[in-house]
Design brief:
There is one protein chain. The chain is an alpha+beta fold. The chain has a single domain, classed as Alpha-Beta Plaits (2-Layer Sandwich). It is built from five helices and seven strands; from the N terminus they run βαβααββαββαβ. It has a seven-stranded antiparallel sheet with strand order 1-7-2-3-4-6-5, with helices on one face. A hairpin with a 2-residue loop joins β3 and β4. The longest helix has 18 residues. The N and C termini lie close together (9 Å).
């Protein structure tokens, strides 16, 4: 792999495919893809002493990420993001939810998906997930943070 970030749709999908290939060639435990934070993410203040637990959502404070390993995807979602993810899955028949885990100590849901498809289709799904599930703009920047 020669580059680790991209900001336009075609380059992001190519980055995802290259990262999946590099992950598989290296036999690494997993691949982590992250999207840059939005202004809304940057404005979130989970450590602010004046913010109450009800006003602060830890899932909004962090930029979204997806992990990939052995045809499985792992991501965290708020309830609204989970609804958008389920809608997106209607268009990607090769993807299915394996597990939904709602830890008591955290808000939101950890979602595990199986992707029974090739890296190109996984790349298409990842790009759409960041844009539609996590509501990133068309020109969002993504990173292969751990390969």
């Amino acid at each position: 792999m020669t580059r680790f970030d991209a900001a336009d749709p075609e380059a992001r999908r190519a980055l995802f495919v290259e990262a999946i290939d590099a992950h598989e060639q290296r036999a690494s435990p997993f691949l982590t893809i992250e999207a840059d934070a939005t202004d809304d993410d940057a404005d979130a203040t989970p450590d602010d002493a004046d913010a109450s637990a009800d006003e602060t959502d830890d899932a909004d404070a962090a930029a979204p990420w997806v992990q990939y390993a052995d045809g499985k995807l792992n991501l965290d979602c708020t309830d609204a993001e989970l609804d958008r993810l389920k809608s997106l899955l209607d268009e990607f028949g090769a993807f299915s939810i394996d597990d939904l885990h709602r830890p008591e100590e955290a808000e939101g849901t950890n979602v595990r998906l199986t992707a029974r498809t090739d890296p190109e289709r996984v790349a298409q799904f990842l790009d759409r997930a960041f844009r539609e599930v996590y509501e990133r703009p068309e020109d969002y920047r993504t990173w292969a943070a751990e390969v």
